[in-house]
């Protein structure tokens, strides 16, 4: 009996040490802004690579359910997501996805889709999917999820509103968006992708209180210990669309890293923060092989604080704008694969003014 229990434990440990990767796309087109686009030809290269290398491409809901129920994630699991519901997802991406029979998720802004309907009635061209098109895709198995009523950052509080008033207003809009999605498509997953990837600990708490799962835009693999208020996704559009770079991301493993108190904050004014300390609960790597890079600053010096935490004293002030600290380390037990974690900051101008989107 003890032998059987040990075997079960080892099996669960083996699978729980794996994770999943969620890919984030916007446009699939060669004529849209490069920063949010991948060409149809390169998108086809991505999907071919997934198939030829035996990746387990699943609906996003399967990954979320596994985390919720603490059920082991199968090795090399991947989910595909699209933000903003652009028409080229239907015209350019869908034929390629259908060829491989891969499931996917589309995050929509009902306010934008509603205005799009008005444009269609007037015979104008539209860059967005219609509700009828979204319903048809949903009926085929595509997950239709919430990207906010409008594409407004939740962190940028309107003047003269307290944070409590702002969140009450946003609660109404988020639930309104979810209700419209359910009315138009029959789906209500309570999945919410943060517009522009911007969030804060207060927003995370608010998302949890409203029973949503929050999806962000910082890189990193997903594991059983992933915080369901900031589920990471790997941006896969240009300039991150080359297979040479995507390969390591697709094979990445989830770092079990925790941030507490001040360390969990994401919004700072320029020059307001100078360091960060990570608490790490993963042991399957050599400390000497841990590397952390901050966008705009490059590789950072790591100072270990005992066995399970390390500090980075920034080599310079974090630049204004969206900033990431990516930490990776080679796995000891899985040669050729890397643990990957990303910490986002949203650095304001001096005086608290937001940077331009």
Characteristic key phrases:
alpha/beta; 2 domains; 357 residues; six-stranded parallel beta sheet; TIM Barrel
Number of helices: 9
Structural class: alpha/beta
What is the H-and-E element order? Answer: HEEEHEHEHEHHEHEHEEHEEEEEEEEEE
Q: Into how many domains do the coordinates divide? A: 2
- Termini distance? 60 Å
Quote the CATH topology of the largest domain.
Answer: TIM Barrel
The percentage of residues in β strands lies in: 15-25%
Indicate the low-confidence ranges by residue numbers.
Answer: 1-16
Query: What would the average pLDDT be, to the nearest integer?
Result: 93
Under the CATH scheme, which architecture of the largest domain would be assigned? Alpha-Beta Barrel
Tell me the overall shape. Answer: globular
CATH class of the largest domain: Alpha Beta
* Fraction of residues in helix: 25-40%
The value of Rg in angstroms is 21 Å
Number of strands: 20
* Major sheet details: 6 strands, parallel
Q: By CATH's scheme, which homologous superfamily of the largest domain applies?
A: Glycoside hydrolase/deacetylase
